[in-house]
Design brief:
The complex is a heterodimer of chains A (about 290) and B (about 240). By secondary structure, chain A is α+β, with helices and mostly antiparallel strands. Chain A has helices spanning about 15-20, 40-50, 55-65, 85-95, 115-130, 140-145, 165-170, 185-195, 220-235, 250-260, 265-270, 275-285, and strands at about 5-10, 10, 25, 100-105, 130-135, 150-155, 155-160, 175-180, 195-205, 210-215, 240-245. Chain B is mainly α and about 240 residues long. Chain B starts with a helix and ends with a helix. Classes of the chains: A alpha+beta (about 290), B mainly alpha (about 240).
């Protein structure tokens, strides 16, 4: 049983569904298209459903068809279109009538790389004038498109914040990966003693006298990288690769999902109550 | 509401569907009409359109589920149910739009049969009042079956299942009066009268004799309202369950 309310611009969707739905454009995961309709007919039908005034209907249909680049297939039967086109037709109906809220459920699934970029750019543009709720499992895409993220696992909201804040909160440590050719011990001691390196966590033998090191950085990652490079070069160690693991949404996601469910929301997640304090509280409750 | 009504009509008339169903209906009507003409007594030269309608109704129950089986099930199959449910149209209007579209196709279907009384009137005499009443009764019966067929379509995404269950239900409804008169049911007078009160055929009999009784109109109208209300509940319940 679910609970709670959904209000759109102050309109409760359960009390005034028609009024609330007028402000929403929705693209489900499977595009809701009628296979036996032509694209133009379908758009006209959707415009009618969304109560777009007759006088504006033609211009609005042309606008969204141009935006989604489906004008060239407007006279084709939807069943004869490719999956990518069908998805774009579905997307076009969602933004028809310039709704205040646009809900997109995995809008780039089934599109080729060029179309994915196009659709992402459209979503970014839409975000300037509309509130776009974008659902996706592709976290790199979420990072690129969204300003604010809600991470949900099995119905539990695990986090609500901007991507930047989440990355800062959950990935405070930056990891450097260094690959060198030469002495393992010498390289390890140089890296470990370099200013900014907190600890060396992993050393792997890559063969052919090559070794890879993983170091946790304590402080400015860029500065530490420069320090390591200059130290290794001055000690005549060949560097073949050096890069840092930037904090990203994927790491945040993994950390959040692997945590036990927490009903306290983001604040509690970001500022977890220490275990001993928790047990004190529970004792007080008793 | 109008866009859904229009879309439904297009799905019937922009495909061979409405024409095929109407052609089948005309074929049945023609066959029964020809049989009736063939059986005309040479002394009286009389035959009854009412009896033709009676016979047609038996075949008619096979046509209505074919017409209504796709009403909601296809929407679910193609995922377009979400489009309609998230549009700013109330569930009541969705149900009414689809019902009216089915009624329009039904009217188109029976309109062709008017040709036979017209031809008969040109060459003889037709008792217009009786014929009009028979048409009204036939329409009421069809309208009730359409509401029932739509209801069954709202339960499943498989249109074939909706069609087959529709055939069974409509067949049972057609013979419920006969069933209530069986020796077994006669043992339980209350049950017998209850079952008989649901029978549409005796009510149609009054229409076919040229009587329009308020109770019969109320019977068909209330059955239509009940089935449509159930349609509404079924769709609304599904919408809530989907979250």
């Amino acid at each position: 049983m679910s609970a709670g309310t959904v209000t759109i611009n102050g309109i409760d969707i359960s009390k005034e569904p028609v009024k609330a739905k007028q402000k929403i454009g929705y693209l489900p995961q499977d595009p809701p298209v009628y296979p036996d309709m032509r694209v133009k007919e379908y758009m006209s039908f959707c415009a009618g459903l969304k109560r777009i005034p007759r006088s504006e209907r033609k211009d609005e249909i042309n606008r969204v068809m141009e935006l989604l680049k489906i004008s060239e297939v407007k006279n084709k039967l939807i069943k004869n279109l490719s999956g990518g086109y069908k998805r774009r037709v579905g997307f076009a109906q969602a933004i028809l009538g310039k709704p205040d809220f646009i809900i997109l459920d995995e809008p780039t699934v089934g599109l080729d790389p060029n179309q994915v970029i196009e659709v992402r750019n459209i979503i970014k543009d839409l975000g300037k004038k509309h509130s776009v709720i974008f659902s996706s499992h592709i976290l790199s895409e979420v990072s690129e498109v969204c300003d604010r993220v809600v991470i949900i696992n099995k119905g539990d909201i695990r986090a609500v914040d901007t991507i930047e804040n989440l990355e800062k909160s959950f990935c405070s440590e930056v990891v450097l990966h260094i690959k060198v050719k030469g002495s393992k011990t010498k390289s390890a001691s140089i890296i470990e003693t370099t200013k900014g390196v907190k600890e060396l966590t992993e050393i792997n033998d890559e063969g052919s006298d090559s070794y890879s090191f993983t170091a946790v950085v304590d402080g400015d990652a860029e500065e530490t990288r420069k320090n390591i490079m200059s130290e290794l070069i001055s000690n005549k160690v060949d560097i073949t690769e050096i890069y840092s693991d930037r904090p990203n949404l994927e790491n945040v996601f993994i950390q959040l999902i692997n945590r036990p469910a927490n009903s306290g929301g983001l604040e509690e997640l970001l500022n977890p109550v220490p275990e001993n304090k928790k047990s004190d509280e529970s004792e007080e409750d008793k | 509401m109008f866009p859904i009504y229009k879309k439904e009509l297009q799905s019937f008339f922009f495909t061979p569907f409405a024409y095929a169903v109407s052609a089948l209906f005309m074929f049945l009507f023609t066959n029964i009409f020809n049989t009736a003409i063939g059986d005309v007594s040479s002394s009286t030269f009389q035959f009854s359109f009412t009896e033709i309608f009676y016979d047609v109704i038996f075949y008619f129950i096979f046509l209505i589920p074919i017409m209504t089986m796709r009403t909601y099930s296809d929407e679910r199959k193609f995922g377009t149910e979400v489009l309609i449910m998230t549009s700013p149209v109330s569930v009541l209007k969705i149900v009414l739009a689809k019902y009216l579209a089915n009624i329009t196709v039904f009217l188109f279907m029976i309109a062709g049969s008017a040709l036979f009384p017209i031809v008969t009137a040109l060459n003889g005499e037709v008792v217009a009042s009786q014929l009009i009443c028979a048409y009204i009764g036939f329409f009421c019966w069809g309208a009730m079956y359409i509401a029932l067929g739509m209801l069954l379509s709202s339960f499943t995404e498989n249109s074939i299942i909706a069609g087959v269950i529709g055939e069974i239900c409509m067949f049972a409804m057609l013979f419920i009066d006969k069933f209530s008169q069986t020796a077994f049911i006669s043992q339980f007078p209350k049950l017998q009268s209850l079952l008989y009160s649901f029978a549409a055929r005796p009510r149609f009999a009054y229409f076919s004799q040229g009587f329009i009784r308020l109770s019969d109109i109320v019977f068909f109208l209330s059955a239509i309202i009940v089935f449509l209300a159930w349609n509404y509940i079924s769709i609304e319940k599904r919408r809530c369950n989907r979250g």
